[in-house]
Amino acid sequence: MTSAFARFPTRLQEAIVSRLGWTSLRPVQELASHVLLDGKNAVILAPTAGGKTEASMFPMLAQLIANEPKGVGLLYIAPIKALLNNQAERLGLYTEMVGLRRFLWHGDVKAQQKKAFVKEPAQLLMTTPESLEVMLLSSKIPHAKLFSDLRGIVIDEVHALAGCDRGTHLLSVLERIARFTENDIQRVGLSATVGNPEAILQWLQGTSQRDGCVVDPPKQPSPKDLKIYLRETLGAIANDASTLAQGRKSLFFCQSRSLAEDIAERMRDRGTDVFVHHSSVSLEERAAAEERFHSGTNASIVCTSTLELGIDVGDLDLVLQANAPSTVSSFLQRLGRTGRRSGQRANTTFYCEDMEPALQAMAIIELARQGWVESVPVQTRTWPVLVHQLLALTLQFGAISPERCWEQLSVISDFSGITKEEYDSLIHHMIKEDFLYSSGGLLSMGTQAERTFGRKNFMEIYAVFSSPQLYKVQTKANYIVGSLEQAFVDKLVPDINTFLLGGRAWIVLNISHDDRSVRVAPAPRGKKPSWGGFIPQLLSFDLCQQVKAILQSNDPVPYIDGISQAALDEGRQDLQPLLAKTGLQFEADRVLWWTFAGGQINHTLKYGLQFHHDWKVVADNFKIKIEGDSVGPGTVNLSIREMSQPGFWSKPAVERFIFSQLPDYRLSKFQKALPEAFALEIIYDYLLNPRGTSKFLQAMANKTSSQSPQKV
């Protein structure tokens, strides 16, 4: 078979050999190049630093060389600006060495540079989904001219977009751009970790009529260094992590900004240069951390998921993790930051505050060893983005008919479960609530939408994901430390309250609501800030079932320390008798139901248990706690049998009760523009899973009946 390299234009072949010094392509690059040169859409899978970028860009650039486009010929889209900036030099080299150009477009790029690009477009445009939206909504950009010859789209870290509102938004924007060209735009997604690549490919295809292919070459197994330590205090975690990190370069991942701030402060002055990196640390502080980290040899960046995606932070020695991530996918992304040097093994060291995150970490490792990764959810009723796109279309066109909006949006797979009648009711509601204004059969933006989303030239429209109001935090010398969410600022009292930001403690001097700023000065160790809301972290059914399997086993776990093993043995001794049966633990004043069914199923069971009883029911990922006067074996088992009946969860009375009990979570800033039923549906779909609950209860009933003595 002819090699893919031989199919490249001579100009590209010579550049790869002379400029890059390559003598061959990697397996994923060979396979992907054939697929893309054959004109197929594709999802390309390979580990972090496995060559996915070249696997997509070389064949896509080859096609541009053979027939140079008029205007932009190729879009490279990344979920975050940092990844764009990180790839800019590499893709700039690849385009330059074959006589093409690339341009980077996002919010930090100067207007003068953007004007020059519009006047003379580069063949490769690198941007984010939100920046693409900005381009579409700008009257100063000749969209038709710019995108009339668009040939292909490469989406990096596609798993970070598919299955969520940002992915729906991206797909909608791409379909709007596709209307400017007669080309069937070739679509390519890149990912290191995804459990259902065929579904992602189908989602990515959109209205494209091209054939599609998943490129997933065999993975070469390699040894990993994994360790889990149980430590009871954050001080002990910081001390152990500092000792391990000395003389090395490490990333220390935390699950929240407050935890990152707390650990960073405790790690300072322990022999390692410590930096903090999360979304509320200022751009300047993050850039300084990345730069000093690049050039250092004894440094640790304490971060949240901001450094999880494929951003190159240099020659990394260690990945540390406080507690455990919520998904196998996140673990694999973080693990893949190490092991890139010849002779180096990929590694992750977990430091857990108690046994629950330690069990979570064990389950994640075991699922990864089995080759299991989460599937990206398939969405068909993405209400918040439908609202967003209606408002965006009114901005783009000034006024547009509901019929034309439906014609453009109904082709998006993430809206395919919404009927025309429901769409019409949404339009009616948005007109009634003044989010839309109707005149002469055309829709334009209503006063309420302008009031809600119109600040700073409609910046709230450009970002689909919920962006809380932020207050900049600055010193008396006007140095910007970072930002705080308004909900936290509202609780601050000048000259009294202190908080952590950028790994340092600050005391509040003054709060200005007019320019949204908080003046601060250095302070002694501060209190831990309350960063987020109270929306629960929902673990998957599979992850929680793996935790259960670990508890039911008696095998030692080779990668945990002695303290963790002793705690695991104690937990096994307590729970194994319960888990061998129904998982129900009856006590004097309450019942604990150890389901290990995950957050969605347990929250669904919570409402089912409360349907007939005035019980206090608290659900987490592993168990359900039931309290009340009539709680006992008879009433609880009867409730479980009732919930197990076919059709229980679809009964109108049950559905009405559940909807009446749903918490008022704000999962999207566009909820306020939705009719109540559709707004509640968003919360329902996030929190609950009736279908999975029915399967769980049926499996439990089958197990119980098989354990029951047979009647003679």
Largest beta-sheet details: 7 strands, parallel
Number of helices: 28
Q: Which stretches are low in confidence, meaning pLDDT under 50 for 5 or more residues running?
A: 526-534
Helix content: 40-55%
Q: Assign an overall shape.
A: globular
Query: Ends: how far apart?
Result: 68 Å
Total number of domains: 5
Structure description:
- With 712 residues, the protein is α/β, with parallel strands linked by helices.
- It has five domains: 212 residues, P-loop containing nucleotide triphosphate hydrolases (Rossmann fold), CATH 3.40.50.300; 146 residues, Rossmann fold (3-Layer(aba) Sandwich), CATH 3.40.50.300; 67 residues, Winged helix-like DNA-binding domain superfamily/Winged helix DNA-binding domain (Arc Repressor Mutant, subunit A); 53 residues, no CATH class; 127 residues.
- Helix content is 44%, strand content 17%.
- It is built from 28 helices and 24 strands.
- The strands form five sheets. Strands 3-4-2-5-6-1-7 form a seven-stranded parallel β-sheet, with helices on both faces. It has a six-stranded parallel β-sheet with strand order 8-13-12-9-11-10, with helices on both faces.
- Helix 11 packs across helix 12 and helix 24 crosses helix 28.
- The longest helix is centred in the last third of the chain and has 18 residues.
